[in-house]
Design goal:
- The complex is a heterodimer.
- In chain A, helix 17 (about 535-565) packs across helix 26 (about 820-855) and helix 24 runs parallel beside helix 27 (about 865-895).
- In chain A, the strands form 3 sheets. In chain A, strands 1, 2, 3, 4, 5, 6, 7, 8, 9, 10, 11, 12 and 13 form a 13-stranded mixed β-sheet that branches.
- Helix content of chain A is about 50%, strand content about 15%.
- Chain A is of the alpha+beta class.
- Chain B is about 55% helix and about 10% strand.
- Chain B contains 5 helices and 2 strands; from the N terminus they run H-H-H-E-E-H-H.
- Chain B has helices at about 10-20, 25-35, 45-55, 80-100, 105-110, and strands at about 60-65, 75-80.
- Chain B has a two-stranded antiparallel sheet with strand order 1-2.
- The longest helix of chain B is centred in the last third of the chain and has 19 residues, at about 80-100.
- The N and C termini of chain B lie far apart (about 35 Å).
- The chains are: A alpha+beta, B mainly alpha.
- The interface between A and B is medium-sized, with 21 and 21 residues.
């Protein structure tokens, strides 16, 4: 029994939409209409007969039954055109012509992409290089460094990569599970005198000062570390007083590396050594300086502490120069090894842990280059933290992303201009697939050109970048075959990304649509953000990134400026420092007399190190109760009485000790008193103090000055005393107009007094600047990438502005006819883009603030982030954007309306 | 004369199409089939059979009226060709021969 359904189509019940969609997707087009119609007809009937729900269920069942191979098979296209070689060639020709027609756009696009690719390439190469350190040894994952943590009574932790000298031998006996134990001492910074064939030669003139060289190792070192010997064998290093040279150094000393073996060198004017081998030059990505390799046996045989501190039965002295490397057996768990080491530490340090509980643990070889907690052997190969590497990689990725985004943006914008061409092609019989291929080919050509250009740019820029990042400039290290693979991948990815979007959109148009409708719709459904197209969002993203970088640069500059102008508590200017050899310290007084005779030299002092230096000498001491040590260690400097005057250190109480005082006297700094709980500095004067085994009275309290770089933390408690055994540095205060002449005189005087020693000297402010090298590099980085980002963002903006102006040609023409001024039109076109930049500023500022606050935390002395930095950056961004857009707007506004309205 | 083999469903569908007065499409064929045989079929089976019969040349199709119930979609209408008629007659004759070859007595035994 059926009832006539007099419902309008809108009220008619409909079958489940998803089932219908499934049917439409699965069934071949030439069969779909009929079977779907039948299904709908049946459905309507069944709704009346058995109700809606049952009818829907039956519908679904019927659809599922239709999913057979018969219905899926598509009819072969009777008009399919196979692609012939001619067609492929034609595609390329059309692509080339298309690029030439839009010369400026293409150039813009290609330039932006290649710059982005070049920058990203360089950054990734740097990252890869930094991560590759010391990985060329066999099985590097089995090699570890034995490091030590000390926890004192207050819970403060102190880490050191060094171990007391007896530890290596003790490890070999106590922990046989460690397959190989390798003690290493580095570095010596020796002065090398080339003696030639005669070990007793006295008039040798070839002297070299080798900074950060002079590694002392035994033959077992080469069992773990893969450094190749060109001449000789590692076993030769089993004897004392022998040395192996790298090929470069052998040639430097003896002009022919093959002649080097068997010749003699004098190290630091106290030991003659025989050359027993020549090593191949070590690759640059290693933390070990392998140019001057002295046998460890030399240190073991030496009784005069010429090769570092401590002795082989002293469990108290630790120097970060004495490091130990071990190799674990295959598949041995690190946790077990660490447990063994913990037991070892308890056994040997029990009763010796007066300044804290000491525990040894293992640090992997791969972290040698990355762990900033521990020093390495050479200042030339600085430790690069993972954080920094990660930053570089992120910046590289961002740049690449931005360049690609730009590219896709512009390419797709251009493509919509070709809609008419697509319409004509379809009318002439082009298949959808063919059109897609055509667009992809065009994109492919552009991307290929950009990538090639980018690689070329990277190659050319490598020398500059290598100076910036302190990486070696050999291109062969970076341009390796696996790079081609990555680039190929990028080529394919970009072609697809940039090409598919316009290709698919355009080839799906029916020819009629193209000539009629406009294509613009917001992509975010939110009503407030309607009108913000995908393209515009991408511009916002780029400008936000650029803004973050600008703000970072500004803040970095201000922080660096602050640090360099900060009062460190001592004189930075007019102080000239030079190194001294304690071997000849008997002549120190002579040197002082001679130096004081030079006009312009006002004070001369000798000390262990200058006020702010890298040395961290600590010791236990006793003050309150002379028989019991205090529970914290104090930093120490050895200096003669002139130290304070030379470096401009002022006293809050007492006086400096006299220059020729025979009894030990101490000078402390304010921080030390504060830590000891002494409120009034004057009370401390005259009291006795015991430093290690030396007891003396405190004669003066000096005003706090910075003992390490401002980054390393606040002022440490400090004691100064005189001890000429440790005078490694000489400082001269110069009051003279002609600085360079005075320096020359100083150099000449020094060479007269110490003819055996090579002279090394530098002005103090120069060395201080070297501390902030890392931060300055970051500043350079920020500046460069801010510039690059702005460049790429502007390219994108330029392209978009031109495109929009082109699209609104007719509108502008009509406005002009109706009387709008050029200025009015320019303002009209600009305001849309200004809106975008403002949004970018709003997004970028908080991000920049957060990032910079994090960075500044590292500094004990830092600036506050002021609001005007953000204002300046914002104004800068707006200004640049306006400039870029105005260029196009003015051009558009000046077009004769007749030209734009002529064709309709 | 070439031998053509028709499956059971194909024969049924062909008969239904032959029995209709006008050109038919999927839905009435399905309804008639279900009515006459008492078995249920799916629309896809019916469609597949109709197209196969058309491929074999026993049916000829045309595009027909669209109605509102179908959402404005048109129908594919089928009608019998002479070949179709011939093959139906062939099959009928073959069956008749087989029936006639059953002995009289046996028929009674089986209650026929």
């Amino acid at each position: 029994m059926t009832r006539k359904q007099s419902t309008s189509p809108l009220e008619r019940p409909s079958p489940p939409r998803w089932a219908d969609a499934l049917l439409e997707w699965f069934v071949a087009p030439h069969l779909l209409e009929y079977v779907q119609g039948d299904l709908h007809e049946t459905f309507q009937k069944r709704v009346v007969q058995v109700g809606l729900n049952r009818a829907r269920r039956e519908y679904v069942w019927a659809v599922l039954n239709c999913l057979t191979p018969f219905f899926a098979k598509r009819n072969p296209n009777p008009y399919s055109n196979r692609t012939t070689t001619n067609m492929i060639w034609n595609n390329f020709t059309i692509a080339w012509r298309g690029l030439k027609r839009n010369r400026s756009f293409t150039a813009l696009n290609v330039l932006g992409l290649s710059v982005g690719v070049a920058a990203a390439l360089l950054l990734f190469m740097t990252v890869r290089y930094e991560l590759s350190f010391d990985q060329f040894h066999t099985q590097p994952d089995r090699v570890y460094r034995v490091v030590r943590e000390t926890v004192d009574a207050n819970g403060n932790k102190d880490l050191t990569p060094g171990n007391p000298l007896p530890v290596a031998a003790a490890l070999k006996t106590d922990i046989p599970q460690f397959e190989t134990v390798v003690p290493v001492f580095g570095t010596l910074d020796p002065q090398v005198t080339v003696l030639g064939s005669d070990p007793k030669a006295t008039n040798a003139t070839a002297k070299f000062l080798e900074d950060d060289e002079g590694l002392l190792v035994g033959p077992e070192f080469f069992q773990i570390f893969n450094f190749r010997w060109l001449i000789g064998q590692p076993d030769a290093l089993a004897q004392p007083n022998v040395v192996a040279l790298s090929k470069t150094f052998a040639e430097k000393y003896f002009s022919d590396a093959r002649q080097a073996v068997g010749k003699f060198l004098r190290i630091n004017n106290h030991t003659t050594m025989r050359v027993v081998g020549v090593l191949a030059d070590a690759p640059p990505n290693t933390s070990f300086p392998m140019n001057l390799v002295i046998s460890y046996a030399t240190k073991q045989a030496d009784k005069a502490k010429r090769y570092g501190f401590g002795s082989f039965d002293d469990w108290y002295s630790t120097s970060s120069n004495d490091q130990i490397f071990v190799r674990l057996p295959r598949n041995y768990a690190v946790a077990s090894a660490n447990a063994l080491l913990a037991r070892f530490s308890r056994k040997h340090y029990n009763g010796r842990d007066d300044n804290g509980k000491k525990t040894n643990f293992l640090s992997p070889l791969v972290d040698l280059h990355h762990d900033v907690r521990f020093d390495t052997f050479s200042n030339k190969v600085a430790v690069v933290s993972h954080q920094r590497i990660w930053n570089l990689a992120t910046v590289g990725g961002l740049l690449l992303l931005m360049a690609c985004v730009n590219f896709v943006n512009l390419a797709s914008a251009l493509a919509t201009q070709r809609a008419k061409e697509v319409g004509v092609r379809k009318v002439l019989g082009s298949q959808k697939g063919q059109l897609v291929v055509q667009f992809l080919t065009e994109t492919f050509v552009m991307v290929l050109v950009s990538l090639l250009l980018g690689v070329g740019l990277a190659y050319v820029a490598l020398p500059f970048v290598s100076a910036l990042f302190v990486i070696p400039p050999q291109a062969s290290l970076y341009f390796r075959p696996d790079l081609t693979l990555a680039l190929l991948g990028l080529l394919v990815l970009l072609t697809l990304l940039a090409g598919l979007y316009p290709a698919l959109i355009l080839s799906s148009f029916s020819p009629l649509d193209v000539f009629g409708k406009q294509l613009s719709r917001g992509w975010l459904g939110h009503p407030l953000l309607r009108g913000l197209s995908l393209r515009q969002s991408l511009i916002v993203f780029q400008f936000a990134t650029a803004l973050v970088l600008i703000i970072s640069t500004l803040i970095n500059l201000r922080q660096m400026d602050y640090l360099s102008r900060m009062d460190l508590g001592f004189d930075k200017e007019g102080v000239f420092n030079f190194s001294m050899d304690t071997e000849y310290r008997t002549r120190n007084t002579t040197l002082r007399h001679e130096l004081l005779r030079i006009p312009g030299v006002s004070v001369v002092t000798f000390s262990s190190d200058v006020p702010s230096s890298n040395n961290k000498w600590r010791s236990t001491f006793a003050f309150t109760n002379l028989s019991k040590d205090e529970d914290f260690t104090v930093s120490m400097k050895m200096a003669d009485g002139n130290y304070f005057k030379t470096h401009g250190l002022s006293f809050v109480a007492g006086v400096p000790y006299a220059a020729n005082d025979t009894l030990p006297k101490f000078v402390a700094n304010e921080t030390l008193l504060r830590k000891l709980g002494v409120k009034n500095p004057a009370l401390a004067i005259g009291r006795n103090l015991r430093l290690g085994n030396t007891t003396g009275s405190v004669v003066g309290i000096v005003k706090d000055f910075h003992t390490n770089s401002a980054r390393d933390g606040s002022v440490q408690p400090l004691l100064l005393m005189a001890d000429d055994k440790f005078y490694y540095a000489g400082s001269v205060k110069i009051r003279s107009q002609n600085l360079s002449q005075t320096v020359e005189r100083i150099k000449a005087t020094y060479s007269r007094v110490f003819p055996e020693v090579a002279f090394v000297g530098r002005f103090y402010d120069e060395s201080l600047n070297a501390y902030y090298k890392g931060e300055r590099q970051m500043g350079w980085l920020c500046r460069t990438f801010a510039g690059l980002t702005i460049f790429i963002a502007c390219l994108g903006l330029l392209g978009l502005a031109a495109f929009t102006a082109e699209q609104r040609r007719k509108e502008i023409g009509v406005r002009k006819v109706l009387g709008a001024s050029v200025a009015g039109i320019v303002a009209l076109l600009n305001q849309d883009f200004l809106k975008l930049v403002v949004i970018a500023i709003l997004i970028g500022s908080p991000i920049a603030w957060y990032l910079m606050s994090q960075w500044l935390q590292d500094f004990t002395y830092r600036i506050d982030i002021e609001w005007w930095v953000f204002a300046v950056a914002g104004l800068l961004a707006v200004g640049i954007a306006l400039l870029t857009v105005s260029f196009q707007s003015i051009k558009a506004a000046l077009i004769n309306p007749v030209k734009s309205l002529r064709s309709e | 004369m070439k031998k053509t083999v028709l499956g059971e469903l194909e024969e049924l569908v062909l008969l239904v199409v032959a029995a209709s007065t006008d050109d038919v499409y999927g839905v009435p064929v399905l309804e008639q089939l279900q009515l006459q045989t008492g078995r249920s079929f799916t629309i896809s089976a019916v469609h597949t059979t109709l197209y196969r019969l058309e491929e074999k040349g026993f049916l000829i199709s045309s595009v027909g009226g669209a109605t509102a119930e179908r959402g404005g979609r048109s129908k594919r209408l089928f009608s019998l060709t002479t070949e179709g008629g011939r093959v139906l007659r062939q099959m009928q004759q073959m069956r008749a021969r087989l029936w006639e070859s059953i002995p009289e007595g046996k028929l009674h035994l089986f209650g026929l």
